[in-house]
DNA sequence: AAAAAAGTTGCCAACGGTGGCAATTTTTTT
DNA sequence: AAAAAAATTGCCACCGTTGGCAACTTTTTT
């Protein structure tokens, strides 16, 4: 455990003042070429790396970013963490995580305390916490940079990266319609989440293009868990008139639907098509593998982090140039197929579409 | 964005020196009762919270713990993060994450740089990175506290929390044997991982108690992914003589086995019992739900963090008193059942056991 | 009651950087 | 070639805390 070298060591050996070394470290423009090379050489030889705390103390920056999240499933946690670090690690930032409870009434204070305590340079907020407007307001007031990941453009460009869940759900609708489904059910997430309403509306809108409408009793609300997926599926599948397709607000609930279908002897996709949303680990592993929507999680993390750092480094106009919207994509697997019972009734176009898939 | 109050403000208002305030903050013993109360009152009124960076600079502590991991599946990431924070958050520590690549040759340097850069007070290392002895040696040499989570007691008490995978695998063996299985296959993880060999040996040992031996051609090596699970299952299930039960080194591979069994029309658990290890999100969602082994992830995180902090705060003997070994438990679900083909040949005891489950 | 011991408290110098401004050197202009 | 401008560099105070040591109180001992 050898002692770390300090800026003084570098300065002494390089024969310059420590202020100059500091300039080199921070890439200041006004350093002579030769001096810079000399200093950089010594830095490398000594394997010097600046003390983040001292730096922070002097410059009131911590080189620490925060990640606030609740449901680790919403955007796959590891993907996000790797994505964020991919961008910020090279720039000298580290990532501090803060799992929390969206429902908790102390959420705002909890998060603010978190930021203050570690003197974070900025925070990235994942859904559904990102939907909290009180938190956003508090962050804005606190003056520290933040970026929210969400399904809706809840905030100005520099503060948000949105995944267009509405469009994605509409695409799923199109896909369902082209398969010939007409009796379609939807298991929504909690209506208090924007992501839930976006997906539901997008789905309904998408279907309406094809003249399909979801019957009111075919819309159920779960809370995005496997268990509520099961509950809702039970209600949907123990009726006289069954839906031929079910779209669930996320993969967990879709998995619940598969479970119930299986236990009731309903064949997927022959008798019932099932689709989810997220493309989490479950989707590709289920039997049958789930058709779902994949959000470009890593890309969202990259964009958010880029915005974050630009914002920290006062490059506000640039932050506006970073894309703010990403498009999730439909991933077709085994759990969806043409609507058999509807074949006769359907028009030719739908039939063709169905065969193609 | 009001200015944070400093220790000076507190000192001035409370009418004491800042050294005294510092003592109160750090719970020093030699502070008069009345003074302490007075100071604490002011601290609360001002909502003062000490500047972590200044504190770190002066005391060479950062109040930052690091989490080094690679495979987020090995111990469910969110559980670990919450577990760690549950302990350390109240004590004023935050958690900095560092996903990495176990295979990378720069692993050690990468991790050391990570620690040095943020001046971490200590790191917690998850499997499989925790099995790297070169990393452990480097950490030891660097002198900073670390705790490894692993399946084997690779290190001294204060540096490790182990989950007894060997015993758990033996319990699975017992369970299989009591169900009457004799033609049993095992899909191991990479043999370079201790956890893999532990589980394999534990399983074999456990079976041997019941006089059951796994045929050499019934042992395949995967690399813990769904895909290799499929590959291995294909090899096992496209033979003349099928195993009646397969134990996979983890849930991902077990899911692969289910997939193959399904596509070959082999009924689980009627014709084939399948079990995994981890009890990750997949296990309970699969159809049929997977019998598996659950490690007390949260508890491991709690223990590790407790050790970590004791070690940081120089309480070495106490660190030895914190439990170092936890017992994973068998979780029986739907993917395992009595061996039908073996019923005749089996003895009464096994039959009874089989019926009970 | 004086001396010794124990318990509290305060002063000042670190910790390792950055920022403002002045000083110095180099380049450009007149 | 002198003056002005620009580029480069250095000095010193300061960021907000903790640690060492001395000073001051209070309590205990003799």
From TrEMBL, chains A, B:
GO terms for molecular function: DNA-binding transcription factor activity; transcription cis-regulatory region binding. The keyword Transcription applies. InterPro entries: HTH_LacI, LacI/GalR-like_sensor, Lambda_DNA-bd_dom_sf, Peripla_BP_I. It comes from the Bacteria. Keywords: DNA-binding, Transcription, Transcription regulation. Residues 5-59 form the HTH lacI-type domain. This is LacI family transcriptional regulator. SUPFAM superfamilies: lambda repressor-like DNA-binding domains, Periplasmic binding protein-like I. The lineage of its organism: Bacteria, Pseudomonadati, Pseudomonadota, Gammaproteobacteria, Alteromonadales.
